[in-house]
Specification:
With 312 residues, the protein is of the alpha/beta class. It has ten helices and 13 strands. A seven-stranded parallel β-sheet has the order 1-12-6-5-4-2-3, with helices on both faces. The chain has a six-stranded mixed β-sheet with strand order 8-7-9-10-11-13, with helices on both faces. The longest helix has 16 residues. It binds beta-D-galactofuranose.
Length: 312
């Protein structure tokens, strides 16, 4: 595992004129949109001809796009895999065509020789950091949590659930009363939170929301306010991504904690591809990006100002 600092990457040479196919999941969240923007910027700065395909969150569209890249004979392929399974066949086709594949921001369950490397955070750790924050915040008070899961079958949804459960294990005062996917979107996050509020005494019995990303948390905040409750005080809000809008909510006292996920996964991907395409240097199978907790104590207004220009 190679760990990365959050410092601005020094742009590596070696990819000028290369053709890279990028199968992106879609634009389901602010973080996803930022990853797309930063990938396109990185490609431009490095002289890469980026072929971009948006899959509208459907795996079959991603597989079709990858087959198209193989047919075009691209030099390399980036995939942000919407779900963790079902990739073996198309990755074997890329391997047969001797086209290296780099996974961005989500892992898959497949033989490691089918991809060059995966550039992702440690998503179990992200869930643990979120859970540890809540454990410290509630002390031994009884706390009923509702969970907004990411896309069903995606590695972040599986791993962030696991990490949060590890954090609250042994703290019997904290229980996850309801858990459902909000598919990483604001709209669905709001809808599911409305159903949780209805089911839990108008929301009065809910102590906290754990959302697998900030966009679902922002949707939940709207639902909580429409139910006449105060997000951030009546119901604590903890989520992941650290997109600018969660810091606006924090500055208003309407969100409490978020775990940062860098949207610049393409920089490290292009760096290792440059080396691999030059002389076959193979990177570690996992390039891990950092995770950092932010709370209301971290000057959220200033963080919002600093982040809002970074591709979101
Ligand atoms: C996590 C990434 C997730 C983000 C969401 O690595 O795949 O997908 O947390 C995005 O915002 O939709």
């Amino acid at each position: 595992v190679a760990c990365l600092s959050m410092a601005a990457p020094v742009l590596a040479a070696g990819m000028e004129g290369k053709v890279v196919g990028f199968s992106q999941i879609g634009s389901e969240s602010g973080w996803r949109a930022a990853e797309t923007t930063l990938t396109q910027n990185q490609a431009k700065e490095r002289g890469i001809d980026l072929k971009f395909a948006d899959a509208q969150q459907k795996q079959e569209n991603q597989i079709k796009a990858v087959r198209g890249f193989i047919a075009q004979g691209v030099d390399a392929i980036l995939i942000a895999p919407v779900v963790a399974t079902g990739w073996d066949d198309v990755l074997a086709e890329a391997k047969d065509a001797e086209i290296p594949v780099v996974l961005l921001d989500r892992q898959i369950e497949a033989p490691e020789d089918l991809y060059l490397t995966a550039v992702t955070s440690d998503q179990v750790h992200e869930g643990k950091v979120a859970g540890d924050w809540l454990v410290a915040d509630v002390g031994d008070k009884a706390c009923k949590v509702v969970e907004l899961q990411g896309t069903t079958g995606s590695s972040p949804a599986i791993n962030r659930k696991q990490g949060f459960e590890e954090a609250i294990a042994g703290h019997d005062n904290i229980t996850i009363a309801r858990s459902q996917t909000g598919d990483f979107t604001r709209t669905k996050g709001k809808e599911v939170m409305e159903s949780f509020i209805k089911a839990e005494n108008g929301g009065k019995d809910i102590c906290a929301v754990y959302a697998h990303n900030d966009d679902m948390a922002v949707g939940a905040i709207q639902a909580i306010k429409e139910a006449g409750l105060k997000p951030g005080t009546d119901i604590k809000i903890v989520s992941i991504d650290a997109v600018p809008d969660i810091f606006l909510a924090m500055a208003e006292g309407e969100a409490n904690a978020t775990v940062e996920l860098t949207p610049d996964m393409a920089g490290p991907a292009f760096d290792v591809l440059a080396a691999y395409l030059a002389d076959g240097t193979a990177p570690a199978k996992w390039i891990q990006t950092e995770s950092k907790l932010f709370t209301q104590a971290d000057d959220p207004k200033a963080v919002y100002e600093a982040k809002k220009g970074l591709g979101y």
